[in-house]
Amino acid sequence: MATATQSDQAERRTRWITVLLLAPSAFWYLALLVVPLAIVVVFSFGERAAAGGYQAAFTIANYLNLPARAAAFRNTLILAPVGTIVCLLAAYPLAYYLAIKASPRMRLFLLILVIVPFWTSFLIRTYAWMFILGGRGLPAVIEWLGLGEVRLINTPLSVLIGMVYGYLPLMVFPIFVSLERLDKRLIEAAADLGSNPWRSFLQVTLPLSAPGVITGCMLVFILLMGEYLIPQLLGGGKVFFIGNALVDLFLQSRNWPFGSAVAMGLVVIMLATVTIYLRVTRRYGAGRDVSLL
Amino acid sequence: MRAYSIAVYLFLYAPIVLIVLFSFNSGNNASDFQGFSTLWYGKAANNRFVIEAVTHSLIVASSSASLATVFGTMAALAIQRVRGAARLFFDAMTYIAIMVPGIVIGISTLIALVTTFGLVNNILTTIWPGDPATAPQLGMGFGSIIAAHTLFSLALVIVIVRARIAGMDRSLMEASADLYATPWGTFRQVTLPLILPAVVAGFLLSFTFSFDDFVVAFWVAGSKTTLPIYIFASIRRGVTPEINAIGTVVLTVSLILLFSAQFLLRRGEKPKAKAA
Question: Which UniProt keywords apply (chain A) (predicted)?
Fold first, then answer.
């Protein structure tokens, strides 16, 4: 009897400790995520007040009006996946070289070299490209070489270059990790069994590196979908993303309800794409240890 | 493959080399190199606005990273003891906090705070005994930036520390309890040392995120200009090599930190592969 109450007490204490440990994070999630997003949902059904801002109402006009920003949605939905794929294609050979070909002595150093650019201010790195792609940078060099006149800055291409540059390290890292964990004897075994290098790559290495590829693509895609700075600085207001539309709606036209509807549109598209993506990749068994949690 | 890798490194470093090179430009046009000088470093160091922005950024980054690391580690430790709705809530929130783009987080925090502050300030003015014009008012500032940055960092720390805990040998903690260690003693002497690399990684990532963040801070900073906000404004004004000088200093400082962290980690016990 006495022992029962004792363990009862201990259990109650453990429960209290658990609650106390979780309380600050729960508060943060509620106050700074649930409540703000709920307010955005409410606002998205409201009306713009005469002087800008929000006026209580219940209408779906803002959602019906979303096609007014079709260009921003189109640009984002084309350039974010394309940027992710280009990033993957650029990152994979490097990650492969680092994990499999580079000498172990050099490996850590080369890996750190990939991360270092990430430690420079993102704004300053992007600004450097304004410079390189601007009239006096690469286009001047191309013209001087007699290859004709080109304009790079403020085109979809310059935005793409900026996106690949900005997030390349984020793609290299997870692919490197999964390639490095891979048992290299498997590749040798494939070769011993008469498989040519290309075929061993396609049938052994690539499938085994899938978790890294999936994680990398997801990280980069999430960040590209919400991108604001790169289209702003390298797209010069001509290549417009949803992020730029949001800044415009909230700060210039002060149409908070419509802005909220656009924000909800972005969030819904993201949640849907990533959830489907995780489902599909998991079905192939490759994504088992990929989930963000 | 080697040649390709070299080309990628060139791609990664060409812009950075340019930034560093042009920070020593003596002319004041950002795209014309006119001669070597450290003029812009002096200008940046004496610019009151730069100093202020750096100070603000350091305050925000260290506070939000500390809050996120402490709260996130606490949650990561407790979360596997929870089942059911509470568990679902935490998992869903962590997922959403990471998935929702920074710009949406910034906007929604702004709207929520403006709405709440409006209500609270009205009440404050009404109940204030003296002249209504002198009533205390809530507004955007350090509090709002730190709170917003802590949200994302918190989710980051929870993910990283939980990954580490998942890979941990639980029998060590049971053994410690069997040997009559108090729960606090087990935490301090067994659990904490084991999860420390993940905790440190979480802190560093949170600090870096906060120090470099523009899209969230832009909305909720009020009058407290952080370094990225200052840099963004200067880029729009048309640039001087001052920005290059600031960028070079930030890069140098983070390189020193990166390499000393590496050095410290290697000097300590052989580190296992980082959980992140």
Answer: Cell membrane, Membrane, Transmembrane, Transmembrane helix, Transport
Chain A residues touching residue B81 (CB < 8 angstroms) = 14, 18
Q: Where are the alpha helices (DSSP H) in chain A?
A: 2-29, 35-44, 61-64, 70-96, 104-115, 122-133, 138-144, 156-181, 184-192, 197-200, 206-208, 210-225, 229-234, 242-247, 256-283
Asked if residue A127 lies in contact with residue A233, where contact means CB atoms within 8 angstroms, the answer is yes
Distance (Å, rounded) from C-alpha A148 to C-alpha A170?
Answer: 35
Domains and CATH numbers, chain A: 74-257 (1.10.3720.10)
Degrees to nearest 5, angle at CA A197 with A191 and A203: 85
Write the burial class of residue A228 (CB in 10 Å: 0-12 exposed, 13-18 middle, 19+ buried): buried
- How does pLDDT run across B113-145, given as a tens digit for each residue? 998 998 898 888 888 887 777 778 888 889 999
Per-residue model confidence as pLDDT tens digits over B144-179 = 999 999 999 999 999 999 988 887 777 887 788 788
Angstrom CA distances, A87 to A75, A122, B12, B173, stand at: 17, 17, 13, 43
ipTM of the complex: 0.87
Which residues in chain B touch residue A34, judged by CB atoms under 8 angstroms apart?
93
pLDDT band at B194 (very low <50, low <70, confident <90, very high): confident
Residues 24-53 of A with CB under 8 A from B: 24-26, 28-29, 31-37, 39-40, 43
Segments making up each domain of chain B, as ranges: 49-267
pLDDT tops 50 at residue A224: yes
Q: How many CB pairs under 8 A join A and B?
A: 224
Q: Both tokens of residue B100?
A: 């929702």
* Residue B6 pLDDT > 60: yes
For testing contact with chain B, the best of A106, A123, A182 (most B CBs within 10 A): A123
Which is nearest to A231 in space by CA: A116, A74, A63, A40?
A74
Say if the Cβ atoms of A222 and B101 lie within 8 Å: yes
From the candidates B2, B5, B226, B257, which should be mutated to test the interface with A, based on the most A CB atoms within 10 A? B5
Return the pLDDT at B40. 85
Distance from CA of B89 to the nearest CA of A (A): 9
Q: Is A117 on the interface with B (CB under 8 A)?
A: yes
Average pLDDT taken over every residue of chain B = 86
- Give the residue among A92, A81, A89 at the shortest CA–CA distance from A175: A92
**Is B154 close to A128, i.e. CB distance below 8 A?**
no
**Nearest-by-CA chain B residue for A22:** B75
* Average pLDDT over every residue of A60-71: 92
Q: How confident is the model at residue A4 (pLDDT cuts 50, 70, 90)?
A: low
Q: How far is CA B10 from the centre of its chain?
A: 28
> Would you call A128 an interface residue with chain B, using a CB distance cutoff of 8 Å?
yes
* A267 close to B (CB below 8 A): yes
Domain B49-267 listed as CATH 1.10.3720.10: yes
Q: What whole-number distance in Å separates Cα of residue A28 and Cα of residue B150?
A: 8
